Amino acid sequence: MASRRMETKPVITCLKTLLIVYSFVFWITGAVLLAVGLWGKFILGPYISLIAENSTNAPYVLIGTGTTIIVFGLFGCFATCRGSPWMLKLYAMFLSLVFLAELVAGISGFVFRHEIKGTFLRTYNEAVQNYNTRDERSIAVDKVQRSLRCCGVLNYTSWFSSVYYPVNGLPPSCCANSSDCNASDLRNATIAPTKVYQQGCYELVTTFIETNMGIIAGVTFGIAFSQLIGMLLACCLSRFITANQYEMV
Questions:
Q1: How far apart are alpha carbons 18 and 222 in whole angstroms?
Q2: Cα(69)–Cα(39) distance, integer angstroms
Q3: GO cellular component terms (predicted)?
Q4: Which of 144, 151, 232, 240 has the most crowded CB, counting CB atoms within 10 A?
Q5: What is the pTM assigned to this prediction?
């Protein structure tokens, strides 16, 4: 019995070390999700409003998920240091739930990416049609056009049917060169097209989605399947500790 315990002790030590390292990485993942959620809430709010038809809870979901992962990451470290089998099993159970949630989220995002594009086309077109320079979506439209160097939905002609165009012409955020683009130019149907960006914003955004969706899905699946490593480590460590305690009785 004594020799058997001596054999399992290094294994338990090795598993504890690996699980603590994994829990630390898992904790960092939670911190990143929390940071992304806060960034989405306070910085990307206007942009998200253009993608979602109604108000979205996505930032709050990320904040909640990140906070939960941080708490359970610390719990995982505590359970590992304590060497408590029931705590380790609870930690493995939580990792399995995170794995399933991330797997479903990744598959859903990849499968419904075309619906996301369709929703963006509809909501962005509505934002352009009802543009007034003041509300949240109008401010988001200006930010998108300036940052992506684009104008309108498909091109600058998308603005012709907006409520803003008859009185003001094209918005200043469409100007390709702000130092050579004034209000009178933007109201002039002949001059304005030569002063603004020629490419529409919808094409740029959807191209970005198509280009990066595979990468995003791959990263999501990679993180999800990494939970399996944590589950395996937690279960193995719990089993070895239980067996070692049984042999000591």
A1: 18
A2: 18
A3: plasma membrane
A4: 151
A5: 0.69
